[in-house]
UniProtKB/TrEMBL annotation:
The chain crosses the membrane at residues 40-59, 71-93, 113-139, 164-186. It holds the Pfam family NnrU. This is NnrU family protein. Keywords: Membrane, Transmembrane, Transmembrane helix. It is found in: Membrane. Residues 3-190 form the NnrU domain. It comes from the Bacteria.
Length: 192
């Protein structure tokens, strides 16, 4: 469990710098240069991610049950993850209404993904992983929207074409991940 927690602290910690230490981040980017800053940021993120994966795998070998969710919540989680994939796609597809409305659809997608998984799983390691990501995404979303308002950020208007691309991309990516990759990468077949 310690590796999982360390990974979460590193990964979410580095992704929280802009929330809690934006002035420090700005000064470090200026001092180190953009490329060195991004390199260090990426290195810490990758180390944190590897520790999360490794720690989660180890924690799954000695599960601690906190609660047993009803089977229906596992099915509901499939809908939550579908919505999460659509929201993440909206972060990358230009001129869509989700991006125009939310500003940060990836963070919204992380919130939905984490919440759905908290409903569907009940082990301590699950609650640590998904609870940490949910808390981080909520705080980061609020912080990012506050920065947007302070900076007068306006996102481009959405179009039907952008929305269609978001929906198709999100649904296709969700299906590939849910039906094939999740079982292969995570070891749990959510559709099986």
């Amino acid at each position: 469990m310690a590796l999982l927690i360390l990974g979460l602290v590193l990964f979410l910690g580095v992704h929280s710098i802009r929330i809690f230490a934006n002035d420090w981040r700005t000064s470090q980017r200026a001092r180190l240069g953009e490329n060195r800053w991004k390199g260090l940021y990426s290195l810490v993120s990758i180390v944190g991610f590897v520790l999360i994966v490794w720690g989660f795998g180890l924690a799954r070998q000695q599960p601690v049950v906190l609660y047993v969710p009803p089977l229906a919540l596992r099915h509901l989680n499939a809908l939550f993850t579908l919505l999460a994939f659509v929201l993440v796609a909206a972060a990358y597809v230009p001129a869509n209404h989700l991006k125009a409305r939310l500003g940060h659809p990836m963070l919204a997608g992380v919130k939905v993904w984490a919440f759905g998984h908290l409903l569907a799983t009940g082990m301590l390691h699950d609650v640590l992983l998904f609870g940490a990501f949910l808390l981080w995404a909520v705080v980061d979303f609020v912080s990012a929207r506050r920065r947007d308002r302070a900076d007068g950020v306006v996102y481009p208007a959405g179009t039907v074409k952008g929305d269609a691309i978001v929906l198709v991309a999100g649904i296709v990516l969700w299906a590939v991940f849910a039906f094939w990759l999740h079982g292969w990468l995570i070891g749990v077949n959510p559709m099986g």
